[in-house]
Design a protein that fits this description.
35% strand, mainly beta, 8 strands
């Protein structure tokens, strides 16, 4: 068995949730220079575990991601999240796995 335990630490990491809107959703993590690692999972329906990081690029354009629950190759041609000084933004172009109107999502962000 493997257990991963996460906790929020002001200015370093944030564990939280957000509600999808179908429009851009700014997620405030209390950071000063944006998130360098983001893990997102939908909780009110089925969905994948999306991972974004600054090594692959969290930018205002296409943001590569990996799915931790899949052996699929990295996806590089989508713009589902954008940088935000205090955390990250889930864009309106994101699929229901990340931003369905009324959807519930959990996340881990690391500064």
């Amino acid at each position: 068995h493997v257990a991963y335990l996460f906790a929020s630490l002001a200015g370093v990491s944030k564990v939280g949730s957000y509600s999808g809107t179908g429009s851009n959703v700014g997620v405030d993590c209390g950071f000063t220079a944006g998130a360098r690692f983001v893990l997102i999972k939908r909780t009110d329906s089925t969905g994948d575990w999306y991972v974004y990081d600054s090594a692959r690029g969290i930018v205002g354009g296409n943001d590569p991601y990996k799915l931790t629950n899949s052996s699929a190759a990295e996806v590089t041609n989508t713009d589902y999240i954008d940088p935000l000084n205090s955390g990250f933004t889930v864009t309106s172009s994101a699929p229901a796995d990340l931003n369905a109107s009324g959807g519930t999502y959990i996340f881990l962000a690391i500064a």
